[in-house]
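Colleagues,

Please find the record for the two-part complex below.
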Amino acid sequence: MFGLSLSFLPFVDGSDGSRNDAPVVLSHDQVEEIGRELDALRDRTVADLGAEDREYIYKIIKAQRGFEVAGRGLMYLGFFPPAWIAGVGALGVSKILDNMEIGHNVMHGQYDWMREPGLNSRVFEWDTVCPADQWKHSHNYMHHTYTNILGRDRDIGYGILRIDEAQKWNPYYLGNPVYAFFLMMLFEWGVMMHDLEAENVIQGKRKWHDVKPLLKGWWRKAGRQVLKDYVIFPALTGPLFVPTLLGNVTANLIRNVWAYSIIFCGHFPTGVQSFTEDETAEETRGEWYVRQMLGSANIEGSPLFHIMSGNLSHQIEHHLFPDLPAHRYPEMAPVVKALCEKHGLPYNTGGFFKQIGSVWAKIFTFALPPGLVSSDTPPGVIVERQKSAA
Amino acid sequence: MSVAHTSRPAEERRFSLLSLFEAMATPHQLDRYLELVTPMVTVRDLRAEVVEVRRSTADTVTLTLRPTRQWRGFRAGQFVQVGVVIDGVRHTRCYSPANAQASTDGLVELTVKAHPEGLVSQYLHAHASPGLVLDLSQAAGEFTLPSPRPRRLLLVSGGSGITPVLSMLRTLVDEQHFGSITFLHYAYTENDVAYLDELRALAAANANVSLVLAYTDQETGGHLHGFFGQEHLDAVAPWYADAETFLCGPPGLMRGVREVYRELGIEDRLHTEEFAPAAAPAEGEAGGAVSFTASGVTADNSGKTLLEQAEAAGLHPEYGCRMGICFSCTTVKKSGCTKNVRTGDTDTDPDKAIQLCVSVPVGDVALDI
């Protein structure tokens, strides 16, 4: 996989824009034009935000609360298997909506412009064990600033997996698929522990002093979540304690598997580029935009699919405009796609099974030492960078 | 925002049941569920429903509000923050209740003047109708009547500054206060006096209340004409040095009264409430850069207030009164020196909560937004 590279590489000439034969080369002027066009798209969307966006998010919240109440209620009929299954489904849907189309997006500040205290990114909490403030640090700041920069973006492999060719192989990674499976099943706990940077704690790079407040946050947040799902609601159903407990565990599991799958489809399918710190030092706004486009991937699907994925199926648009209401991404996507086509850039998209299939293929492939697997890295995009003298 | 609870067993039971419901709703608040069903049934949040709307002058609207049970009442002269959604955005403004503080019906009466550029006041003037639910804050502010009540009172107001002072007058009448009260109100013309009929009725019904209407744009009618000066004071309240004066109005009136009281050396008898936004500092003083650390945005210091600079940088910090009263825009200043434009005080402490709307940066400033 090629990163952003300086234009002294040998294949600068003769590029025909085809992704399969040679890398695409973007001139400095092209990059800046892309930046201007995306800024203009952003401005148009911001100017149009208003009552409709408010109605949309409240409609989603109403639906989520409806599923939640229905799910909790159906657990009282948990002795009747179809009711139990329906309850688990409703609760799973509720948690997915809460985490993805509501929580993730609200905590990005997408609805801060509404000045609604209940939907403010500074105070919003979501229905998962990870405290909002820790997630905002590891996700909004670390991941969105250093998207797909090896060594900086801690979402690459989550500190556990080898998901990129450029991560050096060692025998630990033979367990890659197993780690990925457990990360998927326990995703909310993985997200919670993400900001801990466990490997840095083990290696002594992080001090107890830095870690202690995180643990306090876990105790406060995860403690309440566990109490609610695994003690209070089961106890409230009296003799149905065990079926309700199992129902709540299953609903959390459904949410974990779904969230993991959607999120892994955002940056790890075939064709997504990663970058090095040197390549991305002192980026211009245009270069930042291009990195976000090349480092993200979309999933095609129905409007309902987009809602259930928190519109992270429009990961490319999300990474370009993380603080704009996500339900606007579908209408922005054709503009972004056309811009990519105009400049011969890849616009990485595909159906859910294609994207998740390629992610799992990577997880298995990169478990093995590089000598054992053939590398069929597609050509990347080369961005000409001019260090401006001014 | 804590809910008051006593040690009575019934209250304790209710409270523990409430904690159970709150644990069930975690991490969201119960009100985030209830508001989707009916906004006036709340556990913690204070809201108010508009129950009556009157449009008394061409550009004022009087709203009668019925707050939810969390309302703890107000003292005459205090203000509340009212939030209303306009085109998807919740806007908050400060208004002073105009009714008597001890009113037993628990209602709150607000009179709003529709300023030509006032988004919220224009909206309320045009669209407020019974049934509209507003956000409401508990009352705040130090502009209140002392206890025991002064023997002689001079209440001075101008334009829409009438509301806190009228509340004081109505409260004193309600309490059957025997001391003499002079109510001096400034307006452009007679048509601009909100509450004209009420004022006349109050003065007629209470021998100790005298009403003085001063018109600045009308040379006949009323009792006085032109702007405030010591001759007005001598004419209506020659006993001023022996009284407590409560003043609320536009900046010109505030300045005029303050100057006269300062010259007379009786400033400590004057109690005021600002209702106009703080003036921006003079251009040319600006320097350095303002960095918004949580957003990763940095901008050159334009010399405007930090709230305006944050907005110019595309951020949306919460704000309320935009004049240093309500503390909605309070934000942690990580580092740098800021100057409070109302007091002139400078502040160099790091990690200090400051009010964005009345603070300007002096050199480099970092804010946690």
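DSSP finds 14 helices and two strands in chain A.

Comments are welcome before we finalize the supplementary table.
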